[in-house]
């Protein structure tokens, strides 16, 4: 394992997450794959690690328990990002807090801890198509707000930490996923995983 580049993929048990795990394995990485409910198959170069990101306390517990693994990681893919799918008129403040915590605070806590390790070289955060575009949302308002915050954080960290490459990939809805996000366009998990993998090997402009 020490001879391979290492990556942590959060939210690795979903459709896109599995695609990311497979692509980095194909690319010669050792993959630490985070899951909450659905653990995937381990292999010689893939270890699945459990993590509950529902609070600062549980995130801290994940970081402490897996400190040894995280210290080895050169690449972080923040794919974890729960979504509240609800009519705007029915949203509550707790929904906004939940999505902001899941998509922004969780990413920040993990990034900050991994920066301290000194091994981190690349971070790719996952958004969605149209992130940051100012327009009305009827079903995913709290999610859109959270991902816009993640985009701003990505840009800010990229400017602050010149030795680490921060970027964001914002794909259309994933074919075979649970739902589409209002754009009407779709792509495969493999296509997105390929784009994310490319961000780890060249200096691209943030999408």
Describe this structure in words.
This protein is α/β, with parallel strands linked by helices. It has one domain (5-199): Rossmann fold (3-Layer(aba) Sandwich). The protein contains 6 helices and 8 strands; from the N terminus they run E-H-E-E-H-H-E-H-E-H-E-E-E-H. It has helices at residues 15-26, 56-65, 67-70, 93-117, 141-160, 189-199; strands at 5-10, 29-35, 46-50, 75-78, 122-126, 165-169, 173-174, 186-187. Strands 3-2-1-4-5-6 form a 6-stranded parallel β-sheet, with helices on both faces. The chain has a two-stranded parallel sheet with strand order 7-8. Helix 2 packs parallel to helix 4 (93-117). The longest helix has 25 residues, at 93-117. The chain starts with a strand and ends in an 8-residue tail after the last helix. Residues 202-207 have low confidence and may be disordered.
Task: Write a brief structural summary.
With 207 residues, the protein is an alpha/beta fold.
Fold topology:
Elements: E1 5-10, H1 15-26, E2 29-35, E3 46-50, H2 56-65, H3 67-70, E4 75-78, H4 93-117, E5 122-126, H5 141-160, E6 165-169, E7 173-174, E8 186-187, H6 189-199
Parallel strand pairs: 1-2, 1-4, 2-3, 4-5, 5-6, 7-8
């Amino acid at each position: 394992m020490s001879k391979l580049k290492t990556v942590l993929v959060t939210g690795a048990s979903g459709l896109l997450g599995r695609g990311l795990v497979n692509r980095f394995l194909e690319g010669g990485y050792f993959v630490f794959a985070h899951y909450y409910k659905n653990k995937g198959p381990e292999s010689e170069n893939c270890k699945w690690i459990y993590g509950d990101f529902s609070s600062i306390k549980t995130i801290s517990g994940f970081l402490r328990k897996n400190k040894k693994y995280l210290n080895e990681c050169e690449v972080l893919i923040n794919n974890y990002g729960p979504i509240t799918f609800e009519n705007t008129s029915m949203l509550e403040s707790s929904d906004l807090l939940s999505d902001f915590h899941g998509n922004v605070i969780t990413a920040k806590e993990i990034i900050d801890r991994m920066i301290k390790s000194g091994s981190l070289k690349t971070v790719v955060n996952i958004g969605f198509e149209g992130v940051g575009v100012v327009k009305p949302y009827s079903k995913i308002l709290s999610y859109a707000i959270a991902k816009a915050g993640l985009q701003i954080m990505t840009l800010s960290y990229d400017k602050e930490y010149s030795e680490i490459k921060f970027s964001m990939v914002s794909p259309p809805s994933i074919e075979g996923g649970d739902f589409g996000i209002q754009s009407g366009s779709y792509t495969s998990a493999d296509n997105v995983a390929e784009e994310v993998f490319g961000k780890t090997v060249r200096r691209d402009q943030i999408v």
